[in-house]
């Protein structure tokens, strides 16, 4: 079945450590996104990518980095510069670079990141 | 800032009753989407309504859009315990012609359906 796979499901970060969250999709979607969700809050956009080897900052990019070397993969690194990383991280993808604005996003099941 | 704001924040109903959730937004939109999130899971797309549409149906779901009031409602008829989840509205700005990256989410409504 096609879908988006995020791993790991749970992740713990030590002080000063960078951690990388994986996101893989086999939907052949062009666009991929990373969101952060805090308790009782909506989703906030961290980074997005419309095409391989290209990505843009979202609303809360500070302390995060991404890469898009393959169409299927969009890993997110939470760096030590992100002082409050504890949150639920969601990856999403959507189809069709020609008419993005009317396409829904498909989500993975998230990674919950906590500080040790 | 949040573009979409849902109302109420929490809703508790008996199985079989209808659930109505509202969403208001601030700026003109291209389309509005509703998503569901079960506890600890990702979001699932429910329905998309374009700015030139007033009403859409999908199974037990009915969505309305009033662009003059900048509001939308999601109605779930004959609710079931399995409908227990958080529901989010999300908007795409009118003038956005590129990627769907500017999908802006509200804080969500927690729906509890009692068996």
Explain what the structure shows:
The complex is a heterodimer of chains A (116) and B (115). Chain A is mainly β and 116 residues long. Chain A is globular, with a radius of gyration of 14 Å. Chain A has no helices and 11 strands. In chain A, the strands form 2 sheets. In chain A, strands 2, 4, 5, 6, 9, 10 and 11 form a 7-stranded mixed β-sheet that branches. In chain A, strands 1-3-8-7 form a 4-stranded antiparallel β-sheet, with no helix packed on it. In chain A, strand 4 and strand 5 (43-51) form a beta hairpin. By secondary structure, chain B is an all-beta fold. Helix content of chain B is 0%, strand content 57%. Chain B is built from no helices and 11 strands. Chain B starts with a strand and ends with a strand. The model of chain B has no long low-confidence stretch (mean pLDDT 90). The A-B interface holds A 4, 6, 31, 33, 35, 40-45, 48, 50, 56, 58, 90, 92, 94, 97, 100-110, 112 and B 2, 4, 30-31, 33, 40-45, 48, 50, 88, 92, 96-103, 105-108.
